[in-house]
Structure formats: structure tokens, C-alpha cells
Amino acid sequence: MLVNNFLILGAVLFCIGVYGVIVRKNAVLVLMSIELILNSVNINLLAFDRLWAESGNNDGSVFALYIIAVAAAEVGVGLALVLLIFRNRKTIALDDLSEMKG
Amino acid sequence: MMLASDIQVAQNIGFGIIAAVMVLAAIRVVTSKNVVHAALSLIAVMAGSAAQYLLLSAEFVAVTQVLVYIGAVMVLFLFGVMLTRAKLGKDVDLDNKGAWAYGAPVALLMLGVMVYVLTKGFKDTKISVSGKGSNVGQNSLLSDKIFSSYALPFWALSFVLLAAVIGAIVLARKD
């Protein structure tokens, strides 16, 4: 198989995730799009891992596992923040949070 | 020289089917008008990538993906959806108005650049996904790596997870 199969699949998922981050207003859906992006990066890392596996190098799998762990931590804190915002404002629409605008 | 066994027809067909399902489900994640449907489509994407990891003979990462993403993260997402009282059924207020007009060009431009660079850079570099004749997919090698040369990041990661758990509790508790 071509390594490009996996790399282009990763690129497609990454771009769909970026589109979701730009277009979505609901904070939970933006977090889901970020998960799509992280997942596409994992596909890339494992494809490269397989590409260089013949030389006994499996760093890609290690990186992928660490990314999964960091993504889990990120979702936990992110959803806690979303809950806090919802409790204080009764909405999680991201363009209502505009205090930082001058 | 290219042998008939180098083409790996079955693996290519499997890859194509799973990839098509993943892309369709991913598009549904970012376009669906129903938050719960978006979450369920995200599960399909995660399961599809676990299957791709199996195809790349990374069994341990595939199992971890199923456990952590489909088991834990998606439950967390569904709790988030419920606790923020998302509208059940259709919700018209999920997208920024007219944002697709600049979101779509940005995404397509990025996709174009990446596909161009990848096809130019890796032309027809092949990976073998038959999984025989090498040390591929041996979990002992993976654990050796994690607990020897990557031990320090491993410790750091455990502190990150601890901080994330405590931070989530501190942020989300009522008083």
C-alpha cells in the first residue's frame, strides 16, 4: 500500500476538523472537531511508524499513545470549562463570550 | 520490480471502505444539526481509525483508542451534551451564520496544499501491511520504549493527567 493513502486520509480528516472549529458555534461541537484533528494526527504518526518500522523504530506508536492521553486530559478540562460557562451564563454559544473584545 | 503480492488488493479495499466511512462520518460531525448525532458520528470516526491502526499493525494503540476514545471520551462528551441541556432533536443554532463562506475555502485551501505536498514528497513510497518478517507490532518493544527512553515524558504525562483530573473537579464542582 502507498503511505500516501494514510497520509491523505489524515489530511482530509484534519481539514474537516478545521472546518468544524471555524463554523461551529456550540462549544461542545468545537471540542468534538478538535478531537477529529488530534485523531488525524494519530493516523499520520502511525503511518510513519509503519513506514520506518523495518529499522526497528517504533517511536510513532509511543507518540500516538501520548497524544491519546493528552487528548483525554484536554477533553476533561475543556468540558469542565464548558459546564462552568453554561452554569454562569445559561449558554455555550461561543460568540456570546465577547468580553475580551475592546 | 513490483510483484503481484506487493499490491495487497484486500488491504487496499479494506482501507478504502473504512476511509470512506470515516470521511462521511467526519463530515456529519461538522454538519449535523443534532448534537447527539454528531457525537455518534464521532464514535464512527474513532472506530474507523482504530481499524486503520489495526491495518497498520499497531494493535496496542488500536485497543487503547477503543478504550480511551470510544469508552471514556465519548461518554464524557455525551455527559457534556446532557449537562448543557442541548436541545434534543434538531437545533438550528449550532453554527455561526454564514461561517461556511470562509470556513470552506480555508479548509479546501489547506487540503489542497497538504495533498500537493504529500503527493510530491512521498510519490509512491510503499508500506507493507502484511505484518510478517519483521518486529512490527510487538508490544514488548513498545513497552521497552515507553519505560526506557520515553520514561520522563511518561512521568510528565501522569502529572498532566493528575492535574487535569483535579482541575476538572475544581472547575465543575457546584460551590
Task: Please give a handful of descriptors for the protein shown.
heterodimer, A: 102 residues, mainly alpha, Helix Hairpins, B: 175 residues, Four Helix Bundle (Hemerythrin (Met), subunit A), 2 domains, 6 helices, globular
Describe the structure concisely for a colleague.
Chain A is mainly alpha-helical and 102 residues long. Chain A has helices at residues 3-23, 27-51, 59-89. The mean pLDDT of chain A is 89.
CATH C-level name of chain A = Mainly Alpha
C-alpha geometry of chain A: elongated
How many helices of chain A in DSSP terms?
Answer: 3
Question: How many domains make up the 3D coordinates of chain B?
Answer: 2
**Main beta sheet of chain B: strand number and arrangement?**
none
Q: Quick one: CATH class of the largest domain in chain B?
A: Mainly Alpha
Number of strand segments of chain A: 0
β-strand amount of chain B = under 5%
Distance between the first and last residues' Cα of chain A: 53 Å
At the fourth CATH level, what is the homologous superfamily of the largest domain in chain B?
Answer: NADH-ubiquinone/plastoquinone oxidoreductase chain 6, subunit NuoJ
Largest sheet of chain A: none
Task: Report on this structure.
The complex is a heterodimer of chains A (102) and B (175). Chain A is mostly helical and 102 residues long. Chain A has helices at 3-23, 27-51, 59-89. Chain A has one domain: Helix Hairpins. Chain A has three helices and no strands. The longest helix of chain A has 31 residues, at 59-89. The relative contact order of chain A is 0.13. The model of chain A has no long low-confidence stretch (mean pLDDT 89). Chain B is an all-alpha fold and 175 residues long. Chain B is globular, with a radius of gyration of 21 Å. Chain B has two domains: 8-92 and 101-137, NADH-ubiquinone/plastoquinone oxidoreductase chain 6, subunit NuoJ (Four Helix Bundle (Hemerythrin (Met), subunit A)); 138-175. Chain B has helices spanning 9-31, 35-55, 59-83, 100-122, 139-147, 151-172. Helices cover 70% and strands 0% of the residues of chain B. Chains A and B meet through helix 1, helix 2 and helix 3 of A and helix 1, helix 2, helix 3, helix 4 and helix 5 of B.
